[in-house]
Fold this sequence. Notes:
- The protein has a domain at 7-26 and 85-169: Ku70, Chain: A, Domain 2, CATH 2.40.290.
- Helix 4 packs across helix 6 (282-297).
- It has 6 helices and 11 strands.
- It is α+β, with helices and mostly antiparallel strands.
- The strands form 3 sheets. A 7-stranded mixed beta barrel has the order 1-2-8-11-10-9-7. Strands 3-4 form a two-stranded antiparallel ribbon. Strands 5-6 form a two-stranded antiparallel ribbon.
- The chain is extended, with a radius of gyration of 27 Å.
Amino acid sequence: MPARAIGTGTISFGLVSIPIKLYSTVDSTATVRFNYLSKDGSRLKQQYIRASDGQIVEREERVQGYEFAKGQYVTFTPDELKALYVESTNAIDIAEFIPLDQVERLYIERVYYLGPDKGAARSYHLLKDALVHTGRAALASYAARGRSYLVLVRPMGEGLVMEQLKYQEELRPFDDVPLEPVEVAEGELELAVQIIDQRTSAAFEPDKYRNEVRAHMLDVIQRKVDGQEISVAPEERAEAKIIDLMEALKASVAGSADNGAQEEDAPPRPAKRAPAKSDGGGGERAEKTRKRSKARKA
Length: 298
């Protein structure tokens, strides 16, 4: 099923304008969510309670305020609140082009896919190819939802993605983190590098990993739906042991070497099958249960 656009915008650089559509990179339906219910099974709704007397405050009686000092607020009317925000033009105005490898991942807030809007395919691919050719990314401001965002437009595969960045003022400097200076011994460093070399892969393959916690949750949920009793295993706490660093490094190197030798001596393994779409059987059934429930509510 084609992705549904969550917004629109226009990339501008020089006199060139490229109408685009924004798409989420996250599948929100994969998230396991729980609702609050009363013990009779009725859904609960959130309400605002006045701290002074515990009374429920209805929507029409609420105002928004900013705490400028402890316990002191300045309040705003809806029109005054609108004046606080910028006009949502959905314009992505490119300010400059920068080397892509100069942007620390620390700045990345969230990522969106960008696709061309009607009639913009030629200019869209022109920008993508130009960025690939130069090895650069476009740093821009994006005005949407009443706010101004710092964004980075970069090529990805055959298209473009937009990364929403944090502003410098929003980040805490690493200097705030207390670091005790330590001189690393040469022998320890050599062993640590050896461990890394033994476990290095040629490429990032995210499909080798799955969300085991989500799969477990969906399986337990389905067992509960099927009327099975759920038992909780007692939590075991591992004892903290002080281990000599050099001995731990040597044992790690030896363990990795033994595992490698066992794999070489073992008979050839059958080709890997494509991962099943289900989450251990119960996960797939739980997904279908959730989708049917959502359809009935709609």
